[in-house]
Amino acid sequence: MDSNEILKALERERALLEDFICLSEEQLLLLEDEDIDAVNSLLQKRADLMMELTAIETTLGTWISQIRNDPSVTSEMMREFRAVNDEIVSMANHIVEIDEQTHARLDMMKERTRRDIENSDRTRQPLHLYSDPYKRKV
Fold first, then answer.
1. What local confidence, expressed as pLDDT, does residue 18 receive?
2. Total number of domains in the chain
3. Contact 99, 50 (CB under 8 A)
4. Residue range(s) defining the domain that contains residue 65
5. What are the residues whose beta carbons fall under 8 Å from the beta carbon of 38, sequence distance 6 or more?
6. Is residue 129 part of a domain?
7. In the prediction, which pLDDT does 42 show?
8. Is there a contact between 20 and 78 (Cβ–Cβ < 8 Å)?
9. Is the model's pTM score more than 0.90?
10. Chain segment 52-91, per-residue pLDDT in tens
11. Does residue 128 belong to any structural domain of this protein?
12. Which DSSP symbol is given to 138?
């Protein structure tokens, strides 16, 4: 197994996560504006990135298990793998934090909508009250 390939894959994963973070942050801003259509578009882009991330992660998992006992992989290369992997983990944690904020924002929007609907239902008068003055008297 070529350790340079592993490093390239790790760096590709890191670049994809950077894109993912940008999309997540943009999504949060769009939620502030309640632009749901744009949020849905970003969710699709995130899903596409997630598919590529999953594929890379699967490949890396296989490669890393192969190199653990490979004497040709230097300790310096293993340190480099770990450093990039630590960045990846940190980025993934940041994405989780952004998503938690997004979910909190969505919960607030749902609660506000629920309250608006309840208030609307309370203030709505039954339709028959509106029609009473128009009843024909025979």
1. 96
2. 1
3. no
4. 3-122
5. 30
6. no
7. 92
8. no
9. no
10. 999 999 998 888 888 878 888 888 988 998 999 999 999 9
11. no
12. -
